[in-house]
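Please describe what follows:
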Amino acid sequence: MPGASQMLECYADTLPPSCRRSYVHTARRFLQFAGGDLGRDRLLAYIRHLEKQRYSPNTIRRFELVAIRGLYRACGIPWPLKRWELPAVSERDIYAPALHPDLISRMVSAATSGKVTPTDAALVAMSTTYGLRRVEMASVTPTDLDTDRGVLYVRTAKRGRERAHLVPDAVLPYLERGLSHPPTPREVSEAYYRVEEAAGLPRMPEVGWHAIRRALTRGLVEANLPEAVIRNFLRWKRSESDMLLRYHAATVVGEDGGYLDPGRQDRQVDQAVFERHPFLPLWGD
């Protein structure tokens, strides 16, 4: 059997850029725990280890084990677990929490008043403005932000459509100051707890960045925005009908180099959402 480094390198070659860093990071943590034993019993022990770390059954099944199973597949190792051996996802897990708007307001206030680091403030800005998932925030690099044109490129997870977003003027300074180096997914999770504490909120089990994404989704629905606009803005899984949008949004190359242009329809979607955005006014004018 190849060594851990060789396995991770082989796995990375099979992954798209949008999830490569986070999936390899997850696989590396498992290999460190496994210590060379990739059998069924060691996998079950790792699941119990994650449960003790307060990972939800839904997170274990839909992210941790998906990433680890991809590692096995890339390295030609048979997957030893049966479906019935995986953590059960309850109905309560499916109806996952959405953070109350009042609590989101307190988190934004902590970011705008300097109670958190610039990096953590940038994470709050990306989460509340665009509903970025944890793995998506971990994939954002300084070069993804074009401050001159006010554009942010998002590498969407879960096979959603990657796209460029307009950046509101009120949010741009926080991204400019806070996007220094991409954190790991675990560091993104830890940042949520820091912001939560800085905002004076209690530690709420099963609540993290995704609860803000759900709250944003609810807010956009309640603002009576069309479903197609919401789907575009939140970058949900693409269909063949998205091909026109993908080709219209492009890196425009000129004599002075290239710049990312979101395309007319994406610009119109962002502008429509920003007009009715439930959390954008919290960042000021």
Q: What stands out?
A: Confidence is low (pLDDT under 50) at residues 240-255.
